[in-house]
Amino acid sequence: MSEYMIRLILSLSVLALAGCASMTQPFHQTVTVPAAAPAESPETMGSVEGLSAGSGAIGGSLQRSMDENDKSKASKGLDGAVGKEVRWTNAMSQTTYVMIPTEKVTINQNPYCRKYRMQRIVHDNTQEMNGTACIGSDGNWHET
After folding, report:
1. Mean pLDDT over residues 70-74, rounded?
2. Domains of the chain by residue range
3. DSSP assignment string, 2-22
4. DSSP secondary-structure letter at 83?
5. Are 54 and 46 in contact (CB under 8 A)?
6. Tens digits of per-residue pLDDT, 12-58?
């Protein structure tokens, strides 16, 4: 074999091994979903796919201080695995939010529901709430 062929084979082998080494890096995926629907008062809440409760934005009492970006991130947090914490800080308000889906549940034959725990942290003050949300026919999460 010529020296050129040996060098070519060695070079290709090194490139192939380098490609395998990069496969050991963690995989990160970003999922984009639409922001949740605007909140409604308990008196005017409608139903989503037969849900007996409301169609407001997720986050209960905490969502009142959230902007559209925060609501979108909370929705993405519900898309994650049960027990997987999603944490973000709003750059404008310096408020940190934590969304943790805690359990998959079925409500009125809708298998796309989650119980969750959400926190809002402002300076050293933490507020926490538990809620349940389902994906409606519009593809968005809705508080139940």
Report:
1. 92
2. 34-143
3. -HHHHHHHHHHHHHHHHHHHH
4. T
5. yes
6. 555 555 444 444 433 333 333 333 333 333 322 333 333 333 446 77
